[in-house]
Automatic annotation (TrEMBL):
Family per record: Belongs to the binding-protein-dependent transport system permease family.
Location (main, coarse): membrane
TM segment ranges: 12-33, 73-97, 109-131, 143-163, 184-207, 238-263
Gene Ontology molecular function terms on file: ATP binding
Domain ABC transmembrane type-1: 74-263
Keywords tagged on the record: ATP-binding, Cell membrane, Membrane, Nucleotide-binding, Transmembrane, Transmembrane helix, Transport
CDD domains in alphabetical order: TM_PBP2 (cd06261)
Cellular component annotations (GO), alphabetically ordered: plasma membrane
GO biological process terms held by the UniProt record: transmembrane transport
Protein name: Sugar ABC transporter ATP-binding protein
Membrane association type: Multi-pass membrane protein
InterPro entries, per the entry: MetI-like, MetI-like_sf
Gene3D superfamilies: MetI-like
């Protein structure tokens, strides 16, 4: 294969993926466009991508300064997603470290049980978890959602697989310097696991941020609602006002975009390492 043929193939693939990416981005572009229009323009066909009459500021005020407590829902989502993500990272990293580098009795049994639990659909455990939360007296609290979300066999498995690739020589060198298990975990293993931690962190944050099922079952008080639950009030308040709904949706995805932009290098590195190892 000549270099010229190789470059031509790359150019064709790049163009093909560029066209596919446009199709993926079209819903996001339409959402931004609809959030900037009047309701009449939203229903105009064929679609007018650039609004004739900009209504962005009015829709923005309706979301943040209207009768619906969108700011409170926003704060609730940030609090739950942030605490759940940090707790998941810490617990899953410690479990992954123990299952990958430490030797203890029953290690294989614990790992096998974890793998078996991964095969159980989440919906099958809803009733037992609901009963457990009620018994703990945590129903209708944010603590219920955080407690349910901070343990993950899936993320523990991901971190274990990554940590298995860390050379034992590094850990033994730290041990010779007098470091204990926790010191090795905190000062050696966690810094080396930054790419996979970033990947797990952003996936966990997105899952928690977009979770509708958990808050729907565990929350009853309106002032505790998260954004996915709170969005229904815009529908009830404004009927079929799509432009306002799109503005609320646009505001809801901003933290996810910011998080991805901040961690994108680490996330891509983590996925690349996982792909090479896989």
């Amino acid at each position: 294969m000549t270099t010229r043929t190789f470059k031509l193939g790359n150019a064709v693939l790049t163009a093909l993926f560029g066209i596919i990416s446009i199709f993926f981005l079209l819903p996001l572009v339409w959402m931004i466009s609809a959030a900037s229009k009047t309701e009449k323009e939203v229903w105009t066909f064929p679609i007018q991508w650039i609004p004739k009459e900009w209504h962005f500021v009015q829709n923005f005020k309706t979301i943040w300064m209207g009768d619906v407590s969108f700011g409170l829902f926003y704060w609730n989502s940030i609090k739950i997603a942030l605490i759940s993500t940090l707790a998941t990272l810490l617990i899953s990293a410690m479990a992954g470290y123990a299952l990958s580098k430490l030797e203890f009795k029953g290690k294989g049994l614990v790992f096998g049980a974890m793998m078996a639990f991964m095969m159980i659909p989440e919906q099958a455990t809803l009733v037992p978890r609901y009963i457990m939360i009620k018994e703990f007296g945590l129903y209708d609290t944010h603590a219920a959602l955080i407690l349910m979300g901070m343990f993950s066999s899936y993320f523990t498995f991901l971190l274990r697989q990554f940590m298995l690739g860390v050379h034992n020589d590094l850990l033994e060198a730290a041990e010779l310097d007098g470091a204990g298990f926790f010191r090795i975990f905190w000062s050696v293993m966690l810094p080396l696991s930054r790419p996979i931690l970033a990947t797990v962190g952003i996936i966990k944050f997105i899952w928690t941020w977009n979770d509708y099922q958990g808050p729907l079952i565990m929350l009853n008080s309106t002032n505790l609602y998260t954004i996915p639950l709170g969005m229904q009030f815009f529908k009830e308040e404004f009927g079929t006002t799509i432009s306002v709904m799109m503005m609320a949706s646009l505001a809801a995805i901003i933290p996810l975009l910011v998080l991805f932009l901040v961690l994108q290098k680490q996330v891509i590195k983590g996925i690349s390492i996982g792909g090479v190892k896989g």
